[in-house]
Amino acid sequence: MAAPVSGGGRLCRLAWRRRAGALHSGAQPAALGREPGKVAAAQSGVAPWRAVVGLEVHAQISSNSKIFSGSQVQFTAPPNSLVSFFDASLPGTLPVLNRRCVEAAVMTGLALSCSINKKSLFDRKHYFYADLPAGYQITQQRLPIAVNGNLSYTLCVGAKQSQMVTKNVRIKQIQLEQDSGKSLHNDARSQTFIDLNRAGVGLMEVVMEPDMCCGEEAAAAVRELQLILQTLGSSQAIMAEGQLRVDANVSVHHPGESYGVRTEVKNINSLRFLARAVDYEIQRQIEELENGGTILNETRAFDYKLGCTIPMRDKEGKQDYRFMPEPNLPPLILYDAKSLPANIDDQQVVNIDWIQERLPDLPSVKRVRLVEQYGILPEHSFTLLNEDGLMELFEDVVRETQMNPKKVIGWVISELLGHLKQYDLTVKESPVNSLSLADLLNLLERGVISSSAAKQVLEELWKGEGKTPLQIVKEKRLELIQNQRELDQICQAVMEGHQEEVMEIKAGNKKVLNKLIGLVQRATQRRADPILVKQILEKKLSQ
Amino acid sequence: MLRAALREVSTALKEGQVSPTELCQRCLSLIKATKCLNAYITVTEDTALRQAEESEKRYRRGQSLGDLDGIPVAVKDNFSTTGIETTCASNMLKGYIPPYNATVVQKLLDQGAVLIGKTNLDEFAMGSGSTDGIFGPVRNPWSYSKQYREKCGQNSHLENEDSSWLITGGSSGGSAAAVSSFTCFAALGSDTGGSTRNPAAHCGVVGLKPTYGLVSRHGLIPLVNSMDVPGILTRCVDDAATVLGVLAGHDPKDSTTVQDPFNPFKLPSVIDVGKLCIGIPKEYHIPGLSSETLKVWSKAADLFENAGARVIEVSLPHTCYSIVCYHVLCAAEVASNMARFDGLEYGHRSNMDKSTESMYAATRREGFNDVVRGRILSGNYFLLKQNYEKYFIKAQKVRRLIANDFVNVFSSGVDVLLTPTTLRDAVPYVEFIKEDNRTRSAQDDIFTQAANMSGLPAASIPTALSEKGLPIGLQFVGRAFQELQLLTVAKWFEKQAKFPILQLQEMLDHADALSHQKISLSS
Question: Subunit details for this protein (chain A) (predicted)?
Answer without folding.
Answer: Heterotrimer of A, B and C subunits.
